[in-house]
Each structure stands twice: as C-alpha cells, then as structure tokens.
C-alpha cells in the first residue's frame, strides 16, 4: 500500500486551482468529471512530487455537505495492487465501509473505508 495523494473538498474549483497553481506553484497533472457530476483536479508539487486532489461537488450531491473551514478533507488516496482485496482485508480487520463500486455513487474499481474518526480512505 502506498500513500498517493490527499483529496480536499473545495467550494469553487477554479478559485482553488488559481490559488494552488499560481500562488503555491503546484502543477496540474490530471482532471475530470465523475459520473455523479462532481469535478476533480489533481495537482503535483514539482519538487517533492506530492499530490493534492481538489474535489468539487454540485450543491444537490450527497457529498456536498455543509462546508466548514478546516473540515474540507475529502479523502486520502492509497494506491494498492488489488483494491477489492485490500478493501476486504481492511474490513476483516474492523475498518468500516464508506463506499464501494456497486453503491449508487461508487466508482468502478475504487473502494473507500473510514478511519477511526470517520475520514474517508480511498483504495484504488
């Protein structure tokens, strides 16, 4: 298992892009729109190679909960050889389920569990 990136929820994707790219020097390395209408932008620090994913959800989306500054952590992403197997292993050890590919807002091949404080951990 390898920590790959951290995802933060943002209220305005373009405004956040300008801040992280123009002010902090991160470089865009990927972007897209999820099947549920949310949009994401993956940024990378050119020096450390650390990645930050900015996530925006439309107001009607269940992930678009009330935004409280400082509580914008969306998820922490771990790249694993087999996401389904890692999910099963973590569940067997007591991790709580958050979202699977078969759930309404799930993504093919991506699994989520909750850490002990309820933060989302992505396995992809």
Outline of the structure:
This protein has 124 residues and is α+β, with helices and mostly antiparallel strands.
List keywords for this structure.
124 residues; alpha+beta; 2,3-Dihydroxybiphenyl 1,2-Dioxygenase, domain 1; eight-stranded mixed beta sheet; 2 helices
The name of the CATH architecture of the largest domain is Roll
CATH homologous superfamily of the largest domain - what is it?
A: 2,3-Dihydroxybiphenyl 1,2-Dioxygenase, domain 1
Record the strand order, biggest sheet. 2-3-4-1-5-8-7-6
- How many separate domains make up the residues? 2
Strand content: 35-45%
Number of strands: 8
The count of helical stretches stands at 2
Helix content: 10-25%
- Examine the coordinates and then state which fold CATH places here, giving the name of the CATH topology of the largest domain: 2,3-Dihydroxybiphenyl 1,2-Dioxygenase, domain 1
Instruction: Report the major sheet.
Output: 8 strands, mixed
Question: What's the structural blueprint in terms of helices and strands?
Answer:
Elements (H helix, E strand, L loop, with lengths): L1 E8 L3 H11 L3 E7 L5 E6 L6 E6 L16 E7 L3 H10 L3 E4 L11 E4 L5 E4 L1
Parallel strand pairs: 1-4, 5-8
Antiparallel strand pairs: 1-5, 2-3, 3-4, 6-7, 7-8
């Amino acid at each position: 298992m390898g920590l790959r990136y951290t995802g933060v929820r943002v209220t305005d994707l373009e405004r956040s892009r300008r801040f992280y790219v123009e002010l902090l020097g991160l470089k865009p390395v990927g972007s897209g729109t999820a099947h549920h209408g949310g949009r994401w932008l993956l940024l990378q620090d050119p020096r450390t190679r650390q990645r930050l994913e900015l996530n925006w959800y439309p107001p009607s989306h269940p992930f678009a909960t009330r935004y409280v500054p400082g509580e914008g952590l969306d998820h922490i992403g771990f790249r694993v050889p087999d996401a389904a197997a890692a999910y099963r292993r973590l569940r067997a050890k007591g991790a709580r389920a958050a979202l699977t590919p078969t759930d309404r807002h799930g993504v093919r091949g991506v699994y989520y569990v909750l850490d002990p404080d309820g933060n989302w951990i992505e396995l992809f």
